[in-house]
Amino acid sequence: MNILIVDDQISVIKGITTGINFSQLGIHHVYTATNVAQAKEIIKANVIDILISDIEMPNENGLSLCKWSFDNHPHMICILLTSHASFTYAKEALKFGCFDYIIQPAPYHEIEDVILRAIAKIMSDREKNHYYNLEVTGNIVLNLFSQNPSNRQNSILSLNQMGYSISEDSHIQSVIIEIYPYTKSESPTFSDKSIYLSLIEKAKMSFHSPTINPLVCLNRYKQFVLLLLCNDESLQEVGMESFNLFYENLCKELGPDISCYITPQGLLSESREVIYAGHQLLINNVTKKPGIYLSKRDKTIPKSTGILENITRWTKLLESSQFSILEENILSYLEFNAFINRLNLENLSEFHQQLTKIFFVYSYQMNIDIMNLFSVKFTYSDYMNSYKDVRSLTECISYIIHAIKDNSSADVAKGDVQRAIEYILANISNAISVKDVANYVHLSPEYFSKLFKKEMGENVKNYILRIKVDVAKDLLENPNIPISMVATELGYNNFSHFTQMFKKHEDVTPSEYRNRILNHDKE
Q1: Which residues are registered as beta bridge partners of 29?
Q2: How many CB atoms lie within 10 A of CB 122?
Q3: Of the candidates 275, 307, 28, 314, which has an alpha carbon nearest to the alpha carbon of residue 173?
Q4: What share of the chain is helix, strand, coil (3-state, %, to 5)?
């Protein structure tokens, strides 16, 4: 919030600027001018919210400045100073859109009262305007976190024009709010607008400083982001009790199924780093347990869940068709680790990968077509993305075990090509050749190659390479698996040969493919 004081008497300007604590009123910058011409130049060069001007000045007077301001900057509030308690002046001032006028000399507390009323009107008008343009305002705020510097600069400019005096050096802190009923539901019980209003209102109730501006946006994951902005040190004085109050008030209005992730403080120029710290908190809350979480840069990662110690036992249960016991055992293990807060995104992803391996290997061995395990309601993509939270992974495990159980009893006679495909899939980690596959189905390599191409539309060598590339791509999406290990897993002892094969099929090297996937996920 900025104010401009115009008076041809320097003593009056000095008296007002020293007698009133503008920072306590929420005024960031106080500009001064001794004539109308100088005042107009300041208004043109800066965002001025409140104008306090003397009426009686040589050359152009305060009434003229008020009229010019009303015509060119209608959102600016004008307050006039006068030594004459004349109704003529008041009538003229009101005609030009003057907010109020003060009879000089006036005590400083009276001037403060008028300024406070002006600030209240500005905030009320600003809120009304924002409430009717929530989507536009939200997109402007969201662009503050953009990787493109020009997007951030455009957002800063737009917010300045809306009355927020911010810059790259402004202090910020964010709260990512995950409202579970809203996030999970396609038709939430409350509207976006009502949530926007609740967040802004609860922020004002909890963070009392007049210099802290709360702004709200909605990200692509249907999570709300509350951004706290100021140009002084006010954020450093905000304690945990204020965030607790914000969370409690929000839960009272929107329900208890809410998590708030508080980011560290930083500068607007560091907005991406600030919001990333909060995002890491969010994605590692894999149990989706409601609560308030504070970001700490030195936060330790939970220890391994020890899943490898259980793989052998689960494999034996699967191979002996004890599906109910297997499901109960895996889900109990997952529930226990969630209860003791031992899970995060990394080890939940490992959990998912290890289970996928034993499920798919078993399916290959039992001649079950992997794609037959999925349906329109639960797709392969749903399965592969179920590692992100405990609830999704629990549903995934139950589904896949029941699907395997339903398909394992099917004993359909397979042709030579189908049996060859199953052999290839089961031995994809080995350096298998066309001859190896032909020997498995008891056919000559020449005859088998012709038969395979006729039925599949491609030769067997290309098919083997394509399957290896598909498996490689899945493995490369996990940054914890070295690329050299990926090559070894697919039967390539020569790393260079693996790289050439992969680039031939994908037009990029394995390293380039992994970087592209990781950068896409980060964005």
Answers
A1: 2
A2: 19
A3: 275
A4: 60, 10, 30
Between CA 398 and CA 396 the distance in angstroms is 6
Average pLDDT, the chain: 85
Distance, in Å, from the CA atom of 323 to the CA atom of 133, rounded to the nearest integer, reads 54
Inter-residue contact 48 to 31 (CB < 8 Å): yes
- pLDDT score, position 159: 86
Q: Which residue has the tokens 């929107």?
A: 254
Secondary structure of 364-383 in HEC code, one letter for each residue: HHCCCCHHHHCCCCCCHHHH
Q: 433 in helix, strand or coil?
A: coil
Tell me the CA end-to-end span of the chain in Å, nearest whole number. Answer: 34
How far apart, in whole angstroms, are the C-alpha atoms of residue 456 and residue 51?
79
**Phi and psi (nearest 5°) for 124?**
-65, -45
Structure tokens at 332: 């109990």
Of the candidates 100, 113, 119, the residue with the CA atom closest to the CA atom of residue 211: 119
For the chain, give me the number of helices (H) and strands (E)? 23, 11
The predicted pLDDT at position 149 comes to: 85
Residues 317 and 325: beta-carbon distance below 8 Å:
yes
Q: For 224-242, give the DSSP string.
A: EEEEEEESSSGGGG--HHH
The string of pLDDT tens digits covering residues 319-331 is 888 899 999 999 9
Over residues 399-432, the pLDDT tens digits come to 999 999 888 754 443 578 888 888 888 888 888 8
Cα(311)–Cα(330) distance, integer angstroms: 10
The pLDDT of residue 34:
92
Q: What is the dihedral of CA 428, 433, 435, 439, to 10 degrees?
A: -20
Nearest to 33 by CA among 3, 63, 76: 3
Question: DSSP alpha helices (H): ranges in 285-344?
Answer: 308-319, 323-339
pLDDT in tens, 478-496: 888 888 888 888 888 888 8
The pLDDT > 90 percentage for the chain reads: 26
Token pair 């052998």: residue: 312
Amino acid at 85: A
Distances (CA, A) of 135 to 10, 203, 224, 479: 46, 19, 12, 36
* Cβ burial, residue 387 (10 Å; 0-12/13-18/19+): buried
Count other C-beta atoms under 10 Å from residue 312's C-beta. 10
Q: What's the pLDDT at 106? A: 84
**What is the Cα–Cα distance from 132 to 130, expressed in whole angstroms?**
5
| Beta-sheet strands, E only, within 205-303 | 213-218, 224-230, 258-262, 266-267, 291-294
Distant-in-sequence, close-in-space partners of 270: CB < 8 Å, separation ≥ 6: none
Of the CA atoms within 13 Å of residue 221, those in its CB half-sphere come to: 13
**Distance between CA atoms of residues 172 and 227, nearest Å:** 7
Q: Is the pTM of this model over 0.85?
A: no
